[in-house]
Design brief:
CATH superfamily of the domain at 120-249: Intergrase catalytic core
Helix content: 40-55%
Low-confidence stretches: 322-328
Order of helices and strands: HHHHHHHEEEHHHHHHH
Structural class: mainly alpha
Largest sheet: 3 strands, antiparallel
Strand order of the largest sheet: 1-2-3
CATH topology of the domain at 120-249: hpI Integrase, Chain A
Mean pLDDT: 87
Number of strands: 3
Number of helices: 14
CATH architecture of the domain at 120-249: Orthogonal Bundle
């Protein structure tokens, strides 16, 4: 089994998967392999691929589902389905048994923006004024992180992967060069206010770490020691900013930093951006994902409902002059 899995990853090298994707695949394969080995009474490295059939996989996925969310089970199922298809193609097994393993029905994925019309503005104001209290406050960095989420829609991994050289272009025409999921690259324009935020942040870095050398290939976002910021530290920073601004109760459950990205996309849709534009700016692989933001705003649905002729009769019955406005 372990040799087959390494061959699987070797075959995927030409797909140029991102390190994040590869790590997720390895976790999914390892997690189920441990359960399969436990049922077979052997250590994972000694597990034989030929001994893994539909029954063993059903049992392993059943145990896995007891301690993992639907999305995790669904992702693991997809990973193992791809792995077993590879094994069939390479002649390692006669057939793919994953068709006999139940897969959770995926829940409808809906955007989770910050709740409240003025919440993003309240958050930015609180962070800029230094309302986040800490032993070593760094408002320039806090504002950059929150600003990147709200006006560029970057994912956590994309923020952490930014380099100083990711900021390209002349002043007034700068853009962020971003490498996203699946190693897909995109370029996001930034405005003068974000350029100013970036400039103040870089100046604060030089003041905080005078002995450090900030080259073009240095990480853009740093922790308090001057090292590239980690995933946990970045999530904690954003969570603290929410609490400092008094908006932690307006953050959808489980969203945290991703709520900033969803707020960015939702506001794009509300302001008239089409699905293709949203797809390009957010780095989506599927146009349907981008379309979700347009549907979530409800603007087109609301316009259709308000166009119902019965509303005119209701307006007359209620003694209301004219037709109801779409934005009311």
């Amino acid at each position: 089994m372990s040799q087959a899995q390494e061959s699987f990853f070797l075959a995927r090298r030409s797909r140029k998967d991102s390190p994040h994707t590869t790590a997720a695949y390895r976790r999914d394969l390892a997690g189920i392999s441990v359960l399969l080995a436990g049922a077979a009474g052997c250590a994972p490295p000694a597990l034989e691929l030929a001994a893994v059939g539909a029954g063993a996989l059903r049992e392993a996925f059943g145990s896995f589902a007891e301690t993992h969310a639907k999305t995790s089970v669904s992702r693991a199922w997809s990973t193992w389905n791809q792995f077993m298809n590879f094994c069939v193609a390479d002649g390692l097994v006669a057939g793919n048994p994953m068709g006999a393993v139940a897969r959770p029905r995926p829940a409808a994925s809906m955007p989770k923006p910050l709740r409240g019309e003025d919440t993003p503005e309240q958050l930015l104001s609180a962070v800029a004024s230094g309302e986040r209290k800490s032993r070593d406050p760094w408002p320039e960095r806090d504002l950059l992180v929150v600003g990147l989420g709200l006006v560029t829609g970057l994912r956590s991994a994309e923020m952490r992967a930014l380099l100083v050289s990711s900021v390209v272009g002349r002043p007034g025409e700068q853009r962020l060069h971003v490498r996203g999921k699946g190693s897909r690259e995109r370029s996001i324009p930034i405005s003068a206010p974000m350029e100013a935020v970036l400039g103040r942040y870089l100046a604060s870095c030089r003041a905080r770490f005078p002995q450090a050398r900030f080259g073009r290939e240095s990480a853009l976002l740093l922790d308090l020691r001057g090292e590239p910021i980690g995933r946990g530290a970045l999530q904690y920073l954003v969570s603290c900013c929410y609490r400092a601004a008094g908006i932690h109760d307006r953050v959808p459950t489980g969203a945290n930093l991703h709520a900033l990205r969803h707020t960015f996309a939702t506001r794009l849709a509300e302001d008239g951006a089409n699905a293709a534009e949203i797809m390009a700016l957010l780095g989506h692989a599927n146009l349907n994902t981008s379309q979700n933001y347009i549907e979530a705003t409800g603007r087109e649905q609301r316009a259709a409902v308000m166009g119902n002729r019965t509303y005119r009769a209701l307006a007359e019955a209620a003694g209301v002059g004219g037709e109801p406005a779409v934005g009311d």
